[in-house]
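Lab notebook: predicted structure, single chain.

Context: the supervisor wants predicted structures on file for every construct in the current expression panel, including those that have not yet been purified. This is the next one on the list. No modifications to the sequence; it matches the entry in the shared construct table.
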Amino acid sequence: MIKIEILDKNRIVRTGRNEYDENPLEMTATGQERVYLATQDLTYALGDFIRVTTDAPGKHLMVKLNEALDTTLIYLSDTVWEYIIPLAEGDAASLCDGAFASKAHYISARYAKDYEIKQYRNLALNPHDQRDCANAFPHASANVETRNDSTFFAKNAIDGSYANNSHGSYPSPGWGINRDPNAKLKIDFGREVRVDSASFTLRADFPHDSYWTQVSLSFSEGSSLSFDTVKTADTQSFNFTPIVTRYAVFENLIKAGDESPFPALTQIEIYGTEV
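Prediction complete. Output recorded below exactly as produced.
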């Protein structure tokens, strides 16, 4: 069983209306393997959220909660996932124009197929990640984010967007470290996975931006790897002996000796398979 609902800030199910409906319909639906909600007339309000419920914890889902978000393979550690509609002040800056702002919506979720789960893939990718998300993985968090600004949140570094020739609002959000040499970004997978490759796309709005000459990844089993990086707009990729881990921490960031104080990360990829 899988269920989707749209609820308001008081946790009451919202209603929507389609063109030929006589009466509003409650925005809730249940299915065995796949479920969707569709409406032509529902305007989101501050505090609204989408709740996805599964029949057991530890499920992989393919989800699409808004037209502006790519369909995403996520892992739910619990049976309930609540996705807050990003309407708070400042949220829109990191999203494309019109995201979550229309009246017509199509929301879908289904259990992922075995081949989708088991394939070699970027285990860090999650366009549906949210800053305060607790149980939908992968999830990105950081010990510092520039000015508490959504265009510099850690989640931007795993959203699948590689526009690194600028900085700030969409389409160029990334992870900004507020000039902190001790900045760290953690990718939590929510379960053990096997990883053997990483790619980094540094923000390249030169000469505004600086860059890192060395970065590290640390893993839950205690190991740490360092990688030499260069000044380039291209993605820089590195292979290593497979590691089984629950998370990866991007840290020990050595800034280049140039004049700019602003190194930043546009995208991080970590490749591997389920254990």
